[in-house]
Design brief:
single chain, 193 residues
Length: 193
């Protein structure tokens, strides 16, 4: 070879060409057309119901829930309709029916209560097809008011975590509910002092 490069056998060049062709074919087969729907679905968020918080704190907690939804891969946030919240109130079947009409897969309800410095967070994810609870979090803890939005965001992300990423030792199941979740707080004498 006059150029100084090693001479490769013809079989090697054919193998390289076959490998490149196979890789290109695999890429075409695996490529998905751009879909408008999110792979995990659409989530409607109807706002935060708050007890013992001022309007500014409630709005900060709503922004935290929205951030938690936006940071959850594969979910698309859909603006909730306050008319539906007013009309349906605590009727779960009504919420499910309305959400299906908007082509929404899940509805997220968020409630928070505060009796300084005790916060109660309640988040519930409702599956609109089965009209059952897909996941829920209920937590009461001592927290500084400046920490509440960050905590609400992390709880929202945890609530929306796909089932397949949950440890196999945890058993998650849909549970039918009769009413839209509402905060139930049990206070001890120590918490009241």
């Amino acid at each position: 070879n006059r150029s100084g490069r090693p001479v490769r056998p013809r079989r090697f060049k054919l193998a390289q060409l076959a490998l490149a062709t196979a890789a290109a074919a695999y890429a075409l087969i695996c490529a998905r057309p751009h879909a408008t729907a999110s792979p995990r679905g659409r989530v409607a968020f109807l706002g935060v119901r708050a007890l013992g918080l001022d309007e500014g704190e409630r709005q900060a907690l709503e922004r935290a829930v929205v951030l938690g939804i936006e940071r959850s891969p594969g979910l698309e946030k859909v603006e909730g309709n306050s008319d539906v919240t007013t009309r349906c109130r605590r009727d779960v079947e009504c919420h499910c029916h309305e959400a299906r009409a908007w082509n929404v897969d899940k509805v997220l309800f968020a409630n928070i209560g505060r009796i300084d410095p005790i916060y109660t967070f309640e988040l519930t994810l409702l599956d609109t097809q089965s009209c059952g609870i897909e996941n829920s979090i209920f937590l009461t803890e001592k927290r500084a008011s400046s920490e509440a939005p960050g905590r609400m965001e992390s709880l929202t992300t945890e609530l929306l975590e796909p089932r397949e990423s949950i440890s196999q030792t945890a058993i998650k199941s849909s549970r039918p509910i009769a009413e839209v979740p509402a905060i139930v707080t049990v206070l001890t004498d120590r918490q009241l002092r």
